[in-house]
Design a protein that fits this description.
- By secondary structure, the chain is of the alpha+beta class.
- The protein has five domains: 1-48, no CATH class; 57-126, no CATH class; 129-201, no CATH class; 224-376, Isoleucyl-tRNA Synthetase, Domain 1 (Orthogonal Bundle), CATH 1.10.730; 389-451, Ubiquitin-like (UB roll) (Roll), CATH 3.10.20.590.
- The chain contains 16 helices and 15 strands.
- The chain has a four-stranded antiparallel β-sheet with strand order 3-2-5-4.
- It binds zinc ion.
Length: 455
């Protein structure tokens, strides 16, 4: 207990002896008292940010020159626009103790643009955050030499998906938002935020520790690429862990990734050697077991679409494709019908893996009979009927309003149900190009898709 004769009660609780505020919790009282004071004209709300000033200059050579001239008569004078940009000299001698331009009169001696007297050019450079805080905006119009940004900026921004290391999670993102809001206030761009989504990547570990030169546990991915090719290196890294977690470098796992790609290669060639594929007039005439495989491949597609597109869990996407391949490897059927299902499934597998292992998929796509490169192919369409047509009706709402209906199996998983709902025509129309904030699922009854900026 707090001795109120000695000090104030400073922890949270409920108010007593406070007249109309009696019984309120600390946070309720916080608002109620602020409102009361404001009504009485005795005070106003103010948000205080615990921010400190930022010293933007650095005493080093590597950086953007600060475009200021220091004049003994006029003080700090900005360099006239026609003289921008100030460029660093390259004929420098590097010293241990200070920036080389601090002892280069050719660089710092100048004339004050205001009074014409001798003056000194600033030799400090900007903190590197000065460039990293707005490069994403400049990337939208790098060839514009007349202005910083142009109308292409509003077309491309905000960045849909920002990817960075955890070490950038605070400072860089904070500064980038400052710069963005400054550029907005200056009318250089519209929009309040620079990035829509952030993914922070994990690190690559070796023997459970961070790779470092001093520990001598650095692995160069080039040796893996030399041995197995880039596809194996990519597949191994994406399969080892979800992107935000650290991944343990393992030669054994890399070999496993290579074996998987070889199996896919052999399976595709074996299928092609069997000859022509005829598409059946009616897929409902396929045997039960072939229909089951088709359903499985479309279910896999649904999962992979969601894993890659929304969850960014490439490892679970790859695992789902591996599972599907194991299923079709067991098909022991040389009929025309089986050939059709094999062709359809392998094509789907190759399309699903193409973002992860693009080179082998490019080759396999050609082998499967396509003239155009796989990079130009569309992502396969989820076949709603084949994948999950069942006997339970589920209502589909968008922002609480009934828009469509789907039928699912009693054992359909949540991902499938959500994907089916999203694929409905009436839903697509309302959600395309918009950010989906949440998908609420009431089992066996309804799916509600909550979309941002809904009108
Ligand atoms: Zn001057």
């Amino acid at each position: 207990m707090c001795d109120l004769t000695k000090s104030a009660f400073t922890t949270k609780g409920r108010l007593i002896n406070s007249e109309q505020f009696d019984g309120l919790t600390s946070s309720q009282a916080f608002n109620a008292i602020a409102k009361f004071l404001q009504q009485q004209n005795k005070g106003k709300r103010q948000v205080n940010y615990r921010l400190r000033d930022w010293g933007i200059s650095r005493q080093r050579y590597w950086g953007t020159p600060i475009p200021i001239i220091n004049c003994q008569n006029c003080g700090e004078i900005p360099i006239p626009e026609q003289d921008l940009p100030v460029q660093l000299p390259e004929n420098i001698t590097l010293y241990r103790s200070s920036s080389p331009i601090k002892s280069m009169p050719d660089f710092y001696k100048c004339i004050c643009p205001a009074c014409g007297d001798n003056a000194k050019r600033e030799t400090d450079t900007f903190d590197t955050f000065f460039e990293s805080s707005w490069y994403y905006a400049r990337f939208t119009c790098p060839d514009n030499n007349e202005s910083m940004l142009d109308n292409r900026t509003d077309y491309w921004l905000p960045v849909d998906q920002y990817i960075g290391g955890i070490e950038h999670a605070v400072l860089h993102l904070l500064y980038a938002r400052f710069f963005h809001k400054l550029m907005r206030d200056e009318g250089l761009l519209k929009g309040n935020e620079p990035f829509k989504n952030l993914l922070t990547q994990g690190m690559v570990l070796k023997d459970s520790t961070k790779m470092s030169k001093s520990r001598g546990n650095i692995v160069n991915p080039q040796s893996l690429i030399d041995k197995y090719g880039a596809d194996t290196a990519r597949l191994f890294m994406m399969f080892a862990a979800p992107p935000e977690q650290s991944l343990e470098w393992s030669d054994k796992a890399a070999a496993g990734a290579n074996r998987f790609l070889k199996r896919l290669w052999r399976m595709t060639h074996k299928h092609i050697e069997k000859g022509r594929v005829t598409v059946p007039d009616d897929v409902n005439t396929l045997t039960q077991s072939l229909q089951k495989i088709r359903r499985q491949s479309f279910k896999t597609l649904e999962k992979v679409t969601d894993d890659i597109g929304r969850r960014h869990t490439f490892n679970t996407a790859i695992a789902a494709v591996m599972k599907l391949i194991n299923k079709i490897l067991k098909i022991n059927d040389d009929s025309e019908q089986a050939q059709f299902v094999m062709q359809e499934t392998i094509e789907m597998v190759v399309l699903m893996l193409a973002p992860i292992t693009p080179h082998i998929c490019h080759e396999l796509w050609k082998i499967l009979g396509h003239d155009d490169a796989i990079v130009n192919a569309n992502w396969p369409k989820i076949n709603v009927f084949t994948s999950s047509q069942g006997d339970i009706d589920i209502m589909v709402q968008v922002n609480g309003k009934l828009r469509s209906k789907i039928s699912v199996f009693p054992n359909s998983d949540d991902v499938t149900i959500k994907m089916l709902a999203l694929a409905k025509e009436g839903v697509l129309r309302l959600t395309q190009g918009k950010k989906i904030n949440r998908i609420i699922l009431v089992p066996k009854r309804l799916v509600n898709i909550v979309v941002a900026n809904f009108d």
